[in-house]
């Protein structure tokens, strides 16, 4: 089984507009709402591939019914604790003419230590039975920056720990010695506090982290520039597929889901990276966060160039 943890889930409200005119009234086009949150986006794809997946999360009492409906519609298993308040809504503004997305993410619910203990009790019953534990996204208010490290320390001996986060949440999480992280290039640069200008520099940086935190893989996503998979001994460059982009939100989550799917099916690393890129391409070329069809993913994966470096 695979467990995802999304401590700060969200409803994503996506607004399509040609381009924002500052200081003027902007008339928006289509608006849609989807269940988001990084771990949940990963879990949706994995369960669509029929991998047994449990999504652990924290929901606000005032709109949890609405969110549970989304889990039902997306056919995803969920285990959650309720806390006072309203699960956040994140605004995604897609500027068609500029090929650009602006994310306006709320800080989220406030979680006290009593409710967090309840969450951990639920997690204790599930995490040790998992092959992978994927912790993705920001933390809600009230939880310390080293929350992912603590969770990694709690289960890391039995379970492969995966972290996708940024800033302090990533830097602290690394101290839990995860199995894999999936930073985008900016998150990796922030973690190391320096600019990374070439593949060679990125690989060196990833290996520095792998060595320091006894990790196995760093999967670096670079938007339109593709991806790099780095381990202590190997490195692969993953290309992209030319698709018409609707919105790039969730591209990284799809990449992580595809890569973990490949690993869990014991595919060679180059195939895992191709599957990952295919999941991203399919996700960015449609509205919202659909479940993906595995046959489509394999078809697309054949179009991805993966080079061993
Ligand atoms: N503009 C693009 N053109 C082609 N492929 C893209 C583009 N943006 C993203 N991708 C694909 O998606 C993958 C992940 O994208 P990206 O690096 O933007 O992830 P991310 O920053 O973690 O995204 P998010 O946080 O929104 O999930 C890329 O490696 C690439 O394969
Ligand atoms: O605020 P966080 O937790 O860092 O990111 C949350 C989020 O932007 O990530 C997903 C896309 O990756 C969206 O579904 C969601 O709104």
TrEMBL record:
Stored PROSITE patterns: PFKB_KINASES_2 (PS00584)
GO cellular component, one term: cytosol
Top-level EC class: transferase
Domain of life: Bacteria
Pathway, per record: Carbohydrate metabolism; D-tagatose 6-phosphate degradation; D-glyceraldehyde 3-phosphate and glycerone phosphate from D-tagatose 6-phosphate: step 1/2
EC number(s) given by UniProt: 2.7.1.144
Molecular function per GO: 1-phosphofructokinase activity; ATP binding; tagatose-6-phosphate kinase activity
GO terms for biological process, alphabetical: carbohydrate catabolic process; D-tagatose 6-phosphate catabolic process; lactose metabolic process; small molecule metabolic process
Keyword Transferase recorded: yes
InterPro entries hit by this protein: 1-PFruKinase (IPR022463), Carboh/pur_kinase_PfkB_CS (IPR002173), PfkB_dom (IPR011611), Ribokinase-like (IPR029056), Tagatose/fructose_Pkinase (IPR017583)
The UniProt record lists the keyword Ribosomal protein: no
Domain Carbohydrate kinase PfkB per the UniProt entry, residue ranges: 8-288
UniProt KW keywords: ATP-binding, Kinase, Lactose metabolism, Nucleotide-binding, Transferase
Catalytic reactions of this protein: beta-D-fructose 1-phosphate + ATP = beta-D-fructose 1,6-bisphosphate + ADP + H(+); D-tagatofuranose 6-phosphate + ATP = D-tagatofuranose 1,6-bisphosphate + ADP + H(+)
Extent of the signal sequence: none
Function recorded in the entry: Catalyzes the ATP-dependent phosphorylation of fructose-l-phosphate to fructose-l,6-bisphosphate.
Family to which this protein belongs: Belongs to the carbohydrate kinase PfkB family. LacC subfamily.
Protein name (record): Tagatose-6-phosphate kinase
Species, as recorded: Petrocella atlantisensis
